[in-house]
Amino acid sequence: MKIVIVGGTGTIGKAVAKELGQRHRIIVATSHGEHKVDMTSVQSIEKMYQSISDIDAIIITAGKISFKPLAVITPEDYQIGFDNKLMGQVNMVLIGQRYLKENGSFTLTSGRLSDDPVRSGSNGSVVNAAINSFVKAAAIELPKGMRINAVSPTIIEESKHHYEAFFRGFEPVPAARVALAYSKSVEGAQTGRVYPVG
Ligand SMILES: NC(=O)c1ccc[n+]([C@@H]2O[C@H](COP(=O)([O-])OP(=O)(O)OC[C@H]3O[C@@H](n4cnc5c(N)ncnc54)[C@H](OP(=O)(O)O)[C@@H]3O)[C@@H](O)[C@H]2O)c1
Asked: Cβ distance 84 to 65 under 8 Å?
Protein backbone atom coordinates (compact mmCIF):
# COMPACT_ATOMS: atom_id res chain seq x y z
CA MET A 1 0.00 0.00 0.00
CA LYS A 2 0.99 3.62 -0.45
CA ILE A 3 0.38 5.26 2.93
CA VAL A 4 0.64 8.99 3.66
CA ILE A 5 1.29 9.92 7.29
CA VAL A 6 0.48 13.56 8.01
CA GLY A 7 2.60 14.35 11.06
CA GLY A 8 4.89 11.39 10.40
CA THR A 9 7.92 13.10 12.01
CA GLY A 10 6.20 13.49 15.40
CA THR A 11 6.29 11.27 18.48
CA ILE A 12 3.36 9.08 17.40
CA GLY A 13 3.89 9.51 13.65
CA LYS A 14 7.48 8.20 13.74
CA ALA A 15 6.38 5.03 15.54
CA VAL A 16 3.52 4.52 13.05
CA ALA A 17 5.94 4.97 10.13
CA LYS A 18 8.29 2.39 11.67
CA GLU A 19 5.50 -0.17 12.20
CA LEU A 20 3.81 0.18 8.80
CA GLY A 21 7.07 0.89 6.94
CA GLN A 22 8.00 -2.78 7.40
CA ARG A 23 5.28 -3.76 4.94
CA HIS A 24 4.24 -0.66 2.96
CA ARG A 25 5.50 2.42 1.15
CA ILE A 26 5.33 5.38 3.54
CA ILE A 27 5.16 9.04 2.54
CA VAL A 28 5.60 11.49 5.39
CA ALA A 29 3.83 14.84 5.00
CA THR A 30 4.32 17.74 7.40
CA SER A 31 4.35 21.51 7.26
CA HIS A 32 8.12 21.25 6.54
CA GLY A 33 10.06 18.82 4.32
CA GLU A 34 9.65 17.21 0.92
CA HIS A 35 5.91 16.52 0.98
CA LYS A 36 4.43 19.69 2.44
CA VAL A 37 0.96 20.06 3.85
CA ASP A 38 -0.44 22.55 6.29
CA MET A 39 -3.61 20.79 7.38
CA THR A 40 -5.07 24.09 8.65
CA SER A 41 -5.28 25.29 5.02
CA VAL A 42 -7.74 23.75 2.56
CA GLN A 43 -5.62 25.02 -0.36
CA SER A 44 -2.57 23.26 1.06
CA ILE A 45 -4.51 20.01 1.60
CA GLU A 46 -5.86 20.11 -1.97
CA LYS A 47 -2.31 20.69 -3.28
CA MET A 48 -0.95 17.73 -1.31
CA TYR A 49 -3.59 15.37 -2.71
CA GLN A 50 -2.92 16.65 -6.24
CA SER A 51 0.82 16.04 -5.86
CA ILE A 52 0.66 12.45 -4.52
CA SER A 53 -1.15 9.95 -6.74
CA ASP A 54 -2.80 6.60 -5.90
CA ILE A 55 -2.96 6.91 -2.12
CA ASP A 56 -4.31 3.80 -0.36
CA ALA A 57 -4.32 5.15 3.18
CA ILE A 58 -4.11 8.50 4.95
CA ILE A 59 -3.05 8.58 8.59
CA ILE A 60 -3.10 11.84 10.53
CA THR A 61 -0.95 12.07 13.65
CA ALA A 62 -0.99 15.86 13.98
CA GLY A 63 -3.16 18.51 15.59
CA LYS A 64 -2.77 21.15 18.28
CA ILE A 65 -5.07 21.85 21.20
CA SER A 66 -5.00 24.53 23.93
CA PHE A 67 -4.11 23.32 27.41
CA LYS A 68 -5.34 25.91 29.95
CA PRO A 69 -7.52 26.02 33.07
CA LEU A 70 -11.22 26.65 32.43
CA ALA A 71 -11.03 29.87 34.49
CA VAL A 72 -8.57 31.51 32.08
CA ILE A 73 -8.98 29.77 28.70
CA THR A 74 -10.34 32.24 26.12
CA PRO A 75 -12.59 31.75 23.08
CA GLU A 76 -9.48 32.36 20.93
CA ASP A 77 -7.59 29.60 22.78
CA TYR A 78 -10.54 27.27 22.21
CA GLN A 79 -10.54 28.06 18.50
CA ILE A 80 -6.98 26.65 18.20
CA GLY A 81 -8.19 23.12 18.90
CA PHE A 82 -11.15 23.53 16.55
CA ASP A 83 -9.20 25.05 13.63
CA ASN A 84 -6.11 22.89 14.00
CA LYS A 85 -6.75 19.40 15.42
CA LEU A 86 -10.47 19.09 14.59
CA MET A 87 -11.01 20.85 11.26
CA GLY A 88 -7.48 20.02 10.07
CA GLN A 89 -8.32 16.30 10.29
CA VAL A 90 -11.93 16.69 9.11
CA ASN A 91 -10.78 18.67 6.05
CA MET A 92 -8.17 16.00 5.25
CA VAL A 93 -11.13 13.61 4.93
CA LEU A 94 -13.63 15.94 3.22
CA ILE A 95 -11.10 16.77 0.50
CA GLY A 96 -9.38 13.38 0.53
CA GLN A 97 -12.53 11.39 -0.28
CA ARG A 98 -12.22 12.75 -3.85
CA TYR A 99 -8.62 11.54 -4.20
CA LEU A 100 -8.20 8.32 -2.22
CA LYS A 101 -8.20 5.00 -4.10
CA GLU A 102 -11.20 2.69 -3.97
CA ASN A 103 -11.30 0.80 -0.64
CA GLY A 104 -8.81 3.29 0.81
CA SER A 105 -8.77 4.26 4.47
CA PHE A 106 -8.48 7.30 6.73
CA THR A 107 -7.13 7.00 10.27
CA LEU A 108 -7.47 10.04 12.52
CA THR A 109 -6.03 10.75 15.97
CA SER A 110 -8.15 11.85 18.92
CA GLY A 111 -7.12 11.08 22.53
CA ARG A 112 -8.48 9.71 25.83
CA LEU A 113 -9.37 13.18 27.16
CA SER A 114 -12.72 12.72 25.36
CA ASP A 115 -13.93 10.54 28.23
CA ASP A 116 -11.13 10.73 30.82
CA PRO A 117 -10.81 14.48 31.51
CA VAL A 118 -8.04 16.26 33.42
CA ARG A 119 -7.67 19.82 34.72
CA SER A 120 -6.77 22.27 31.90
CA GLY A 121 -7.80 19.69 29.30
CA SER A 122 -11.31 20.84 28.32
CA ASN A 123 -10.34 21.97 24.82
CA GLY A 124 -8.76 18.56 24.18
CA SER A 125 -11.80 16.76 25.61
CA VAL A 126 -14.22 18.58 23.31
CA VAL A 127 -12.03 18.27 20.21
CA ASN A 128 -11.29 14.56 20.75
CA ALA A 129 -14.98 13.77 21.29
CA ALA A 130 -15.83 15.62 18.07
CA ILE A 131 -13.21 13.64 16.12
CA ASN A 132 -14.60 10.36 17.47
CA SER A 133 -18.14 11.40 16.46
CA PHE A 134 -17.00 12.50 13.02
CA VAL A 135 -15.41 9.10 12.37
CA LYS A 136 -18.60 7.24 13.32
CA ALA A 137 -20.74 9.51 11.12
CA ALA A 138 -18.41 9.67 8.11
CA ALA A 139 -18.05 5.87 8.04
CA ILE A 140 -21.65 5.41 6.91
CA GLU A 141 -21.33 7.90 4.03
CA LEU A 142 -17.85 7.59 2.57
CA PRO A 143 -17.86 6.55 -1.11
CA LYS A 144 -16.11 3.72 -3.00
CA GLY A 145 -15.67 1.32 -0.07
CA MET A 146 -13.53 3.79 1.87
CA ARG A 147 -13.09 3.19 5.59
CA ILE A 148 -12.39 5.55 8.50
CA ASN A 149 -11.31 4.99 12.12
CA ALA A 150 -9.74 6.99 14.95
CA VAL A 151 -6.98 6.05 17.38
CA SER A 152 -7.50 7.48 20.86
CA PRO A 153 -4.26 7.20 22.85
CA THR A 154 -3.61 8.06 26.47
CA ILE A 155 -0.40 9.95 27.32
CA ILE A 156 2.59 8.59 25.39
CA GLU A 157 5.66 7.35 27.28
CA GLU A 158 8.03 9.34 25.02
CA SER A 159 6.22 12.65 25.63
CA LYS A 160 5.24 12.21 29.28
CA HIS A 161 7.93 14.66 30.49
CA HIS A 162 5.93 17.47 28.84
CA TYR A 163 2.56 16.62 30.38
CA GLU A 164 2.98 14.29 33.36
CA ALA A 165 2.00 16.97 35.92
CA PHE A 166 -1.46 17.06 34.29
CA PHE A 167 -1.78 13.27 34.03
CA ARG A 168 -0.99 11.98 37.54
CA GLY A 169 -2.15 8.39 37.90
CA PHE A 170 -2.36 7.78 34.15
CA GLU A 171 -0.26 4.89 32.88
CA PRO A 172 1.74 6.10 29.83
CA VAL A 173 1.90 3.80 26.79
CA PRO A 174 4.90 3.47 24.46
CA ALA A 175 4.40 4.99 20.99
CA ALA A 176 5.21 1.57 19.48
CA ARG A 177 2.13 0.11 21.20
CA VAL A 178 -0.07 2.96 19.98
CA ALA A 179 1.28 2.32 16.46
CA LEU A 180 -0.38 -1.12 16.48
CA ALA A 181 -3.82 0.50 16.59
CA TYR A 182 -2.97 2.40 13.38
CA SER A 183 -1.88 -0.89 11.82
CA LYS A 184 -5.23 -2.45 12.83
CA SER A 185 -7.09 0.46 11.26
CA VAL A 186 -5.14 0.49 7.98
CA GLU A 187 -4.47 -3.22 7.51
CA GLY A 188 -7.75 -4.51 8.99
CA ALA A 189 -11.30 -4.29 7.66
CA GLN A 190 -13.14 -2.31 10.31
CA THR A 191 -14.74 1.11 9.86
CA GLY A 192 -16.38 3.72 12.08
CA ARG A 193 -14.35 2.53 15.07
CA VAL A 194 -12.51 4.41 17.79
CA TYR A 195 -9.54 2.44 19.16
CA PRO A 196 -8.66 3.52 22.71
CA VAL A 197 -5.06 2.74 23.66
CA GLY A 198 -4.25 2.92 27.39
N1 LIG B 1 1.88 12.70 22.65
C2 LIG B 1 0.88 12.31 23.42
O3 LIG B 1 1.06 11.97 24.62
C4 LIG B 1 -0.51 12.23 22.85
C5 LIG B 1 -1.52 11.54 23.55
C6 LIG B 1 -2.80 11.50 23.01
C7 LIG B 1 -3.10 12.13 21.81
N8 LIG B 1 -2.10 12.79 21.16
C9 LIG B 1 -2.43 13.46 19.89
O10 LIG B 1 -1.67 12.89 18.85
C11 LIG B 1 -1.35 13.87 17.87
C12 LIG B 1 0.15 13.82 17.62
O13 LIG B 1 0.81 14.03 18.84
P14 LIG B 1 2.42 13.95 18.93
O15 LIG B 1 2.77 14.09 20.38
O16 LIG B 1 2.93 12.81 18.15
O17 LIG B 1 2.79 15.34 18.21
P18 LIG B 1 4.23 15.93 17.84
O19 LIG B 1 5.33 15.06 18.32
O20 LIG B 1 4.21 17.36 18.25
O21 LIG B 1 4.24 15.86 16.23
C22 LIG B 1 3.32 16.60 15.47
C23 LIG B 1 3.52 16.27 14.00
O24 LIG B 1 2.56 17.01 13.24
C25 LIG B 1 3.22 17.83 12.27
N26 LIG B 1 2.42 19.06 12.11
C27 LIG B 1 2.27 20.07 13.00
N28 LIG B 1 1.43 21.01 12.52
C29 LIG B 1 1.05 20.56 11.29
C30 LIG B 1 0.19 21.11 10.28
N31 LIG B 1 -0.44 22.29 10.45
N32 LIG B 1 0.00 20.41 9.15
C33 LIG B 1 0.62 19.21 8.97
N34 LIG B 1 1.45 18.65 9.88
C35 LIG B 1 1.66 19.33 11.03
C36 LIG B 1 4.62 18.06 12.85
O37 LIG B 1 5.59 18.34 11.86
P38 LIG B 1 5.91 19.87 11.40
O39 LIG B 1 5.99 20.69 12.65
O40 LIG B 1 7.18 19.73 10.65
O41 LIG B 1 4.76 20.26 10.54
C42 LIG B 1 4.89 16.67 13.45
O43 LIG B 1 5.26 15.76 12.43
C44 LIG B 1 -1.87 15.21 18.42
O45 LIG B 1 -3.11 15.52 17.84
C46 LIG B 1 -2.06 14.95 19.90
O47 LIG B 1 -3.11 15.72 20.47
C48 LIG B 1 -0.81 12.85 21.63
From this structure: yes
